[in-house]
Structure formats: structure tokens, C-alpha cells
């Protein structure tokens, strides 16, 4: 059979053929709503049902319903069969109203920093599920009423994509943390690179390939100055100080390369550090090796004459299968070694979390039906328990009594008893 030749195809160069394949795939994905049209995917955040809002605020659904009937607080949207729902902005308006009308519980409803409370900067170091942990921690804090800034230091923008910022496929110019800490005359203010997200109270600094340029520049300076430690860390600290008064918590997602200058900057800027550990012996060995890197780079900062005093260094077990005997033994090993520095809660391996991630969404953004109710509720339980522990640590640093772990436990118990009634809440 003679070979069929296409003259048009023969005119294509290799680069043109590759580009054509890319365009064909992109167009087909876009037709199915699976490809971003621009750098920022400005999707809206879904509204929250009355039952969800009651659980978030730690009050009863009947109380919220009566507030709505009496015309107090924000006016919820009325949906099918009169079911009430609130946007996150309205939830925060409810917080302000409840803090004002119930002053003895003001901290419960409005947990933001008071005068004298220092900004909490939590560096989530590279490790198993560190991107997911950073993502859910920042969103969970925002849902609880904190003003949050999330910073992505990954040149590949792995956290950025989860927020809808597709900087890896559609690169940005001078719009990542690089822009606020670079060495040349194009350095800009920290405020100018902060982006809004669809979560009220949560802002974001995207990661991009520009961050790799900063690492290269720091490396050149390091070697040209006889291995004198450069001021990359100081630049990170200074940039965050510019927005100190605007936020309660900063969550920094560290770059995958644990030895990079950006990561060291995150170490120096941090008031607390969260380290991931997967409950398998090989992964625990990696965590132990990381701690040697961590210690070394903190020592470099100390040798430069700058003290490093963290409010906390905590460890979190992620991707945990609680039914696996070997993993149970690994968690015991970690707990015996780390004591109270290992969070009590563990983040379970979850199909629901994985499926939400494939959609570039969090479970907070999805309804239970999107991933299956049972898997959804189980995943939310483990995520909320983890976030509650971190929030209680922050409360302790600010001199407040812990309340989030007990609130999460109470919500879990009430949820199992009243899941049907909450689903019918109006």
C-alpha cells in the first residue's frame, strides 16, 4: 500500500506540529471546562447552607434561623423550599454582629489579632502533602474569621494552581514573591503583588518560575562573596513586615528544594514551623534527614548574628491509613520520638481530598455530593481536627484559652447525631 503523503503536513516544522497538537488538546479541554482561559481562574465560592454556617460559628441552626426571621445580621439567600444560605462575606458579617451583641464571646466569633498580638507566620515545609496542607490550613483559618495571607514559594506554582492561579502554564512577570525581594531596581512593594481570592479574608501571593531566578541570583552572590551568607532572609522578613498590620496569619508554602535560599528566608520569617511526616519508615527517614538540613540552615542564620526563636515547631502526620498496622506502628514511633510536638490529629489518606485536588478545589469549596457524602464527611473531620489544633496553638501564643479542638469535637458529635436535621435546615 503506497504511503499517503499530506503536502500540508510536510510543510510543518517540528515546532509547528508540536504547537498544533498542544492547541488541539487545549481547545478540547477548554470545551469541557477543564482548561484555564487566563492566569486567574476567578471562580466564585459556593454559598454555605444554614447548617454549615451554624457549625462554622459554633451556634445552633435554630438560633441563626431566628436571627434571619427577626431581620438581624445579614440577609441570607432563600433557595428551594426556603432554605437559607450565606456567602463567606455574610458569614464574616454575622461574626461581627455576634461579637457585638454577645461581647463575652467576642473572641469566639471574631478571633482576629488584638493590640499586642504578633502576626503569626507559619512556614509549611516541603514534604508529603505540604501543598495540600498549606491549602487547607489557609482556607480553614479564613473560614474561622482570621485574616490570612498565603504565600507560594514554589517556582512551579503548585499551591497557586489550587487557588486558581495558573502561573506555571501562563507565566507572570514580576508578580510573585520574587518581585518584592529581588536585588535590582525592579523590586516592588509587597502590597502590589498580593492577589485577592474567592475566600473573603484570604489573600494570596502566587508562585512562578521567577522564583528560580532569585535562587540563581542568591547562589551567584553566595559564591562571589566568599560564601558569605546573602541577605535573602532579611529581604523576606522585611517584605512581610510591610503588611504586618493587615493580617492575623501568614501561611508560607515552602519550595520543594529544602536547601534553597527562599526556604531559608521562610525559616527566618516564621514564628512557627509545620513539618509533614508520612507514617512509613522510609518517609520518616526523609523527615529525619530534613531536620538536619533545617538545623543547619537555622544555624547559618544564628551565625549571622540573628536569633531564631519559634513559638512552635510542630509535626503533622499526613496521608495516613489508620487501618494499616505498619502505619499505626510508625505513628507510635513518631509520637514516642516527638512527644507533644506531634499533632494529635492525623490527616488520613482520602479519595475525597484527592478528587477535589484534581478539580483544583478544596473540600470547603465543594458540596458533599461532589465527592460522595461518606468520604466527604470523613475527610472534613480529619482536616478540621488538624486545623483546630493549629488554631489552638495560635490562641495559646496570643494568650487566649484553647477552644477550637473542643469545638471541632462537639461539632463532630452533633454532626453524627443531627446530620439529617442539618440537611433540612432552612
Give a structural overview:
Pfam families: AAA_31. InterPro entries: AAA_dom, DNA_Partitioning_ATPase, P-loop_NTPase, Plasmid_partition_RepA. This is Plasmid partitioning protein RepA. This protein has 426 residues and is of the alpha/beta class. It has two domains: 48-108, Multidrug-efflux Transporter Regulator, Chain: A, Domain 2, CATH 1.10.1660; 112-402, P-loop containing nucleotide triphosphate hydrolases (Rossmann fold). 48% of the residues lie in helices and 12% in strands. It contains 17 helices and eleven strands. It has helices spanning 7-11, 14-31, 50-57, 61-69, 88-101, 106-109, 130-143, 158-162, 177-181, 210-224, 232-241, 261-269, 281-303, 325-338, 351-358, 373-397, 404-423; strands at 48-49, 77-78, 84-86, 120-124, 148-152, 195-196, 202-205, 249-253, 272-277, 312-320, 342-348. The strands form two sheets. The chain has an eight-stranded mixed sheet with strand order 6-7-5-8-4-9-10-11, sandwiched between helices. Strands 1-3-2 form a three-stranded antiparallel sheet. β9 (272-277), α13 (281-303) and β10 (312-320) form a beta-alpha-beta unit. 39% of the residues are buried.
Amino acid at each position: 500500500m503506497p504511503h499517503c503523503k499530506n503536502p500540508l503536513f510536510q510543510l510543518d516544522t517540528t515546532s509547528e506540529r508540536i504547537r498544533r497538537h498542544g492547541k488541539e488538546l487545549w481547545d478540547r479541554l477548554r470545551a469541557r471546562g477543564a482548561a484555564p482561559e487566563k492566569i486567574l481562574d476567578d471562580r466564585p465560592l459556593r454559598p454555605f447552607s444554614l447548617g454549615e454556617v451554624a457549625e462554622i460559628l459554633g451556634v445552633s441552626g435554630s438560633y441563626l434561623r431566628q436571627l434571619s426571621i427577626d431581620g438581624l445580621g445579614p440577609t441570607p439567600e432563600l433557595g428551594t423550599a426556603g432554605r437559607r444560605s450565606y456567602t463567606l462575606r455574610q458569614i464574616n458579617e454575622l461574626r461581627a454582629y455576634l461579637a457585638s451583641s454577645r461581647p463575652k464571646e467576642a473572641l469566639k466569633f471574631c478571633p482576629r489579632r488584638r493590640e499586642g498580638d504578633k502576626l503569626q507566620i507559619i512556614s509549611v515545609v516541603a514534604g508529603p502533602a505540604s501543598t495540600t496542607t498549606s491549602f487547607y490550613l489557609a482556607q480553614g483559618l479564613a473560614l474561622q474569621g482570621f485574616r490570612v495571607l498565603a504565600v507560594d514559594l514554589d517556582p512551579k506554582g503548585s499551591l497557586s494552581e489550587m487557588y486558581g492561579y495558573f502561573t506555571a502554564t501562563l507565566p507572570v512577570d514580576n508578580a510573585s514573591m520574587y518581585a518584592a525581594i529581588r536585588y535590582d531596581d525592579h523590586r516592588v512593594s509587597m502590597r502590589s503583588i498580593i492577589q485577592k481570592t474567592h475566600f473573603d479574608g484570604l489573600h494570596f501571593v502566587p508562585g512562578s518560575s521567577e522564583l528560580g531566578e532569585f535562587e540563581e541570583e542568591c547562589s551567584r552572590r553566595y559564591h562571589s562573596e566568599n560564601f558569605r551568607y546573602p541577605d535573602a532572609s532579611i529581604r523576606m522578613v522585611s517584605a512581610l513586615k510591610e503588611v504586618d498590620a493587615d493580617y492575623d496569619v501568614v501561611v508560607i508554602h515552602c519550595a520543594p528544594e529544602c536547601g534553597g535560599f527562599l526556604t531559608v528566608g521562610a525559616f527566618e520569617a516564621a514564628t512557627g514551623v509545620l513539618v509533614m511526616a508520612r507514617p512509613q519508615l522510609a518517609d520518616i527517614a526523609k523527615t529525619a534527614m530534613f531536620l538536619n538540613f533545617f538545623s543547619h540552615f537555622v544555624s547559618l542564620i544564628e551565625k549571622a548574628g540573628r536569633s531564631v526563636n519559634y513559638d512552635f515547631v510542630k509535626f503533622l502526620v499526613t496521608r495516613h491509613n489508620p487501618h494499616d498496622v505498619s502505619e499505626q506502628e510508625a505513628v507510635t514511633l513518631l509520637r514516642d520520638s516527638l512527644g507533644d510536638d506531634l499533632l494529635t490529629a492525623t490527616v488520613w489518606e482520602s479519595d475525597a481530598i484527592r478528587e477535589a485536588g484534581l478539580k483544583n478545589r478544596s473540600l470547603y469549596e465543594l458540596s458533599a455530593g461532589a465527592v460522595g457524602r461518606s468520604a466527604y464527611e470523613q475527610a472534613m473531620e480529619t482536616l478540621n481536627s488538624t486545623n483546630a489544633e493549629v488554631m489552638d496553638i495560635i490562641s495559646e501564643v496570643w494568650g487566649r484559652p484553647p477552644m477550637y479542638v473542643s469545638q471541632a469535637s462537639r461539632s463532630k458529635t452533633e454532626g453524627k447525631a443531627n446530620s439529617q436535621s442539618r440537611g433540612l435546615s432552612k
